[in-house]
Amino acid sequence: MLISMTGVGSAYDTFDWGTLRIDVYSVNSRYKDIIVRCPKELSMLENSLREELKNRYVRGKVIVTLYSTFAPELKMASINGKVLGNYFEELMSIHGKLKLLEEIQLELLLDLPGVLEQPEGRILDLYEQINKDAIALLDKALSDWNEMRKGEGEHISSFVNESLDKFEKLVDEIAGEWDVAFEEELLELKSKINLLVSNIALEDDPSHFEAVAHLADKWDIKEEITRSKFHIEKFRETLKSNVSEGKKLNFLLQEMLREINTIASKVKNAKIRWHVVESKCLLEQMREQIQNVE
């Protein structure tokens, strides 16, 4: 199973305290990166939403954005009657002592400290309920987000499986071509070794022995073909896993590419080298897709 790292999701609902919309958007990243963007009034939700997200995916950059409106009674500042009354009594006492004729205007008292209570305070009083509603809504948005990621993962899986079949066919063709070219390559190797051995007889240089050992070790590609087939088998097993394992698939692709490059460095056969070029193109296309997998 493959799950894409890219996806979008959204959820909206109405509550007693107001309305809330949560948008989830994700892009590729080698690591787990969570960004939560809240309105100033809901900034207290950031940590709880981040904690909720931590265990909901493996890797990628996820951006969660909240949009809210509040009920009218939460938008209005409220007057603290007790504080206002205390101010008024104090002023009336001073007014009487000074025998002032001008009446006290109540609206001028609203700017005094503690008379007006801002709506943010009442929103904080509702924190537990708002947090509970936000997490429930986030769950809906993540469900929508995951559906899209799974759909994208199915498309990637289809492409990768098709490319893997083509790559396996190319490896089989390389193996077939090598069976034909083996004798020719062996004769060329013997010719090089004979040349080096004759030089050894003329001059006592240990480097010639090293060159012979190097030639004997670096001319056959059967091991690379065998390992390539093994990597293909493991790649298919990983694709069928119950969890998305993008990192493991990426490492397997690196190993497959390494084997193909080694084959290219060892042989001169034109047909095999062309199969190598086609194989590298396929592996690069697969890697581009797998880099988008969680």
Automatic annotation (TrEMBL):
Keywords: Endonuclease, Hydrolase, Nuclease. Its cofactor is a divalent metal cation. The keyword Nuclease applies. InterPro entries: YicC-like_C, YicC-like_N, YicC/YloC-like. Residues 4-156 form the Endoribonuclease YicC-like N-terminal domain. One of its GO terms (molecular function) is RNA endonuclease activity. Residues 187-294 form the Endoribonuclease YicC-like C-terminal domain. Belongs to the YicC/YloC family. This is TIGR00255 family protein.
